[in-house]
Amino acid sequence: MRDLQGETAPNARQAFTWRRYLRFWRSRVDHDVADELQFHRDMLIDDYRALGMSPDDARGAAERRLGDLRRPTDECVTIATRQERRTTRALMFDALQQDLRYALRMLAMRKTWTAVAVLTLALGIGANTAVFSIVDALILNPLPFVGADRLVLPWMQEAQSQWKMMPTRGVVRAWRSSGHLVEAIEEYQTGRVNLATTGDPVELQTATIGTGMLRFAGVPLVMGRGFDTSETTPNGPPVVILGNSLWRTRFGGSHDVLGKRITLGDTPYTIIGVASSKFRLPALLQVETQLWLPYVAEKEQSNPATIVRLKAGVSLPAAQAELDSIARRPELQVGSRLHVLLQTPRDIVGYRDTIYLLTAAVAVLLLIACANVAHLMLARGASREREIAIRGALGAGRFRIARQLITESLVLSAVGGVIGVGLAVGGLAWLESARPAGLQLLDRAQVDWRVMMVALLLAAATGMTFGLVSAARGARDATAGSLKDTATSGTTTRRHGRVRSLLVVTEMALSALLLVGASLVVRSIVKLQSVDPGFDSKHLYSIDVRLPRSTYKTSEAVTPFMNALAARARQLPGVTSVADVSSLPPNILIFVEPLEIETPAGPRTDGGSSFNPKMSVHDDFFAKAGIRFVEGATFSPNAVDLHEVIINASLAHRLWPGQSALGRHVRLASSDPKDREPWNTVVGVTADLVVHGLSGVGKEGLMIYPEKGAGQTLAVRTTDPATLFREMRAAVRQIDPSVKTLKMTSVEKDVADTIAQQRFTTLLLSGFAVLAVALAAIGLYGVLSYSVAERTREIGVRIALGATPSNLAAEIVRGGVVLSAIGLVLGLVAANWGARLLRSVLFSVGDHDAASYVAAGVLLLGVSIIACLVPMRRAMSVDPVIAMRDGADRRW
Amino acid sequence: MRNQPIDFLRGTLDLLVLKTLSWGPSHGYAIARWIEQCTNDAFAVEEGSLYPALYRLEEQGLITADWGVTDKNRRARFYRLTAAGKQELKTSQEYWQRYTGAVSKLLVTSPQGA
């Protein structure tokens, strides 16, 4: 048996060879094990044959000796597979570690270069991360209810004016009882209430909800229970569910608040639950509800807001058609101009256009950052050609070198990403402090793990983008045999030149796009801020008393209260005038009735909106508020009896275009003849004034009636608002302690706040634009100055040969400017197309506003000329001899 | 009974394999034959236990394996002792000698009381 002799059968040998090739591609452990055992078997057979057995007998004897080898084979395969996997992993990890170490070393070697690249990336990624966190909170997930994709908010809308109102209770009842596509429908109402404290009363945001709302939302309470049916009846027990933030701030998040009492107005309410911070209502998307109260239909004064969950698979148009046809039933008395409008929670997110705009802006910013870093890589790539060529010559494959370059890019973008997330967190904190009052939802925008993931993806995508570009070039360099002096090689320069030209064009185009957008918005806000509000809001304060309707049913009851309050206000220091009015801009009440005018052919209904703003004032209000008359004058002493009315210029123009409105007749056209007012005679036409907002000036009509008794809002002009507020609060308590609600604001600030959204958009967009232009300027400067510096040698030669500096300068600047101009034109064309996105946020600035385009063009062209001139001056001041000797090494 | 092959005690096969490889690299078949030969066929090395043992030792890093060609020009997997394997052999050998010495001492001693 010791003698190992004999031959393997020819076919077995062939199998070996074949498998060997197979293994060449990838190692297959099961084949290895089989081969090894086959070898053993062959050796056994040889030994048996050496003992004189016939081939068949020898084979049989070998099989008998070996027995069933299936289990040991499996065992071997298992062990070997396990081991191989471990080895592969270790190898890969080794290579990765090596790449990383090398990348870090390369980056550390060029600190300035790395800092510029990382900072550029951080700005791009940071801006995107911050904006994504806003998009995430406000748009992707505005209402975190169960079946959120089937939630709709029904409105009754007038097609013409786009005004919309809540559906009446009758309509909602009909929907609930006969809407086949409706799964559930819930009503709620929002309001405010004063929390009794030892100090000044604190006004809280409240919402009333029915017994089913919590189940409808599917957002469980933090603790406690929801309302039951006994609590939603008019005389039910006073119970309240705490909003999450109120619970945390006022009750310290304590777990034994259940059963405690909280005094609202005069009534103590028992706390029965604490709501989750996720539980929000569509009408209060932007703010958090602080207190939840039972919805008692009988106590509510206006139509409730409704929220509907459709059955699964129901399309919006189908649902709209069904609800509309139900609302059309004659007994529901819905005006013929109104139709049902269904909105999704996403539709009602305020600032939606602004957010989309910002998303587009930061995406452009990131592209610019990418272009910048791509150029940085390129510029460095040129000086690394030798290194890469050497590595290639030493045996590093294309793939190996490409992997190295991609690793470097990814390391770069990862560092940029980390810093970017930091910037995003800081930026959000800053936004939180700069946001307008209405955008409270921003507090939900935070950098959580989802946002982190997006930042990570962004960083990875960014790194891959410019990494692949440089990798593709690096791999080519490695095989192009560029070990020869690349500095003098004209072809490399030209090849880089092409990519670089592309980068200049791209950066110019992108910056032009952003700059045009920003300047459109800036010009728009400038125009908005200079809109004449039509009245003097300086030092004007609104004291809004909401008298309880139970005790103040008629104007006879209201007048003494308001007169007493006004008398008190007049005595205060600093007060120059006091007027009582029904409501003050920008919070004018609206009446949902179309207007009709008297014509020789009889009454004619106004074709404009049937949502008509209306206020009532005394005859001296116009003088006190500084409202100008275009035609006519203020009310006569017995204006009420004479049915006098004053309208604004917009309404006059709408009702009687091109004619004088004085002496003409107008009235609200009620659908019920019994309620119809008598004809009002127009005695004056005022200049346009703010009705609901600065952007509406010149568009919104206004009817001003003579006040019969006293309006429930005091317009007080004073230089000492603090005293006014304090004394008014005391006066109200003195005149009637049961009056709890008193809202005091600065009218000037209220009016300014009507363009808060535009101001905020402008602030952000111009911020991004400045950032973009800065990045692009740095980038352009880098690219152009690099290409000029690269020509230092050439410049030196040409000066030595007698070229005049001015000719040379003109030629070089022309080269840069032509490229920039191409980019600029592309960018302006793109901006012209993209500006339609802006239309909804622009005010009296067309999206083709020439000035914005010219300004962007001039600014960017200026930047590119400077970017060419500065390095050129440096290049020309160099001694030609030095320039020719080592000019080509002047790289960064 | 005398000519019946001896069953392996636990761990013995590993020790024998390591000892065999300490003379030089070898393939599985040669290892089996070598063990049988040196012990005058007292041990029957079963292929079903030998190969899993080899793979286990390889996984533990005591031996390594490479494909090579025999003097008969056949492809075979050759095993070789690693540094760790040599150390392990030394330790196991000493242990084994202490163990067998103690056992044999006990076996040759006659009972005192009986």
Summary tags:
heterodimer, A: 892 residues, alpha+beta, 24 helices, 24 strands, globular, disordered C terminus, B: 114 residues, 3-stranded antiparallel beta sheet, 4 helices, 53% helix, 14% strand
Walk me through the structure.
The complex is a heterodimer of chains A (892) and B (114). Chain A is an alpha+beta fold and 892 residues long. Chain A is 52% helix and 15% strand. In chain A, strands 1, 2, 3, 4, 5, 6, 7, 8, 9, 10 and 11 form an 11-stranded mixed β-sheet that branches. In chain A, β7 and β8 (267-274) form a beta hairpin. In chain A, α21 (792-800) runs antiparallel to α24 (880-886) and α22 packs antiparallel against α23. Chain B is of the alpha+beta class and 114 residues long. Chain B has a 3-stranded antiparallel β-sheet with strand order 1-3-2. Chain B is elongated, with a radius of gyration of 17 Å. The mean pLDDT of chain B is 84. The A-B interface holds A 1-2, 4-5, 8, 16, 20, 32-33, 35-37, 39-40, 42-44, 66-69, 71-73, 75-76, 79-80, 82-83 and B 27-30, 32-33, 37, 46-49, 51-52, 54-56, 58-59, 70, 72, 74-77.
Oligomer: heterodimer
| β-strand number of chain A | 24
Q: What share of the residues of chain A does DSSP label as strand, in percent?
A: 15-25%
Fraction in helix of chain B: 40-55%
Strand-pairing-aware structural class of chain A = alpha+beta
Q: Main β-sheet of chain B: number of strands, strand sense, barrel status?
A: 3 strands, antiparallel
What form of chain B results from the Cα inertia axes?
elongated
Give the N-terminus to C-terminus distance of chain A in angstroms.
75 Å
Q: Which stretches of chain A of 5+ consecutive residues score pLDDT under 50? A: 1-26, 481-492, 887-892
The radius of gyration of chain B is 17 Å
Q: What is the gist of this entry?
A:
The complex is a heterodimer of chains A (892) and B (114). Chain A has 892 residues and is α+β, with helices and mostly antiparallel strands. Chain A is built from 24 helices and 24 strands.
